[in-house]
Structure prediction request, 166 residues.
Amino acid sequence: MYPLQGSCRRSGEKFPLDNAGPGDFRNAPQNLVRPREAFSLVELMVVVAIVAILAAVAVPAYVNHVRRSEQAQAVEALLRARMELEAYWADHNRYAATLRLLPSFESGTQGKYVLTLKTSPDGQRYRVEAVRSDVGDKLHLSDNETHPVVDTPKALGWSLFHWLFD
Prediction:
């Protein structure tokens, strides 16, 4: 059996590798063995730049997603108010004067939206509005509309209504 030998790429010098396992360079010349190097500053800056780009895309998408889900809660509240107003109409032959007269509206706040009910003096017409003042989003639903209407479509960017109702 031949003794194991290694050679230096630069000088071509031969050195024995007897009893050497993988990664064992005790017998190797010092110019061949390099100490373990750390990441360079350039490599770290590239990683930081990639993470920053991903965060720049992901954070606004997440915020938009959260706002759209909150807007969906406002839509649900408007549709629930319409259903309960129609039930109130069936019992009293007029629409409720305030939201507190409806079973599921103890307060006018639904999530981050504040709901208000406006009825005509004779109680024959209504308009329910959902307003979120921090982002300027406003929706409404009236007795002659089949689905909620967004009064400020660009307040949240992409709107749930364009996907659902258009």
Summary: The mean pLDDT is 79. DSSP finds two helices and seven strands in the chain. Helices lie at 41-92, 160-164.
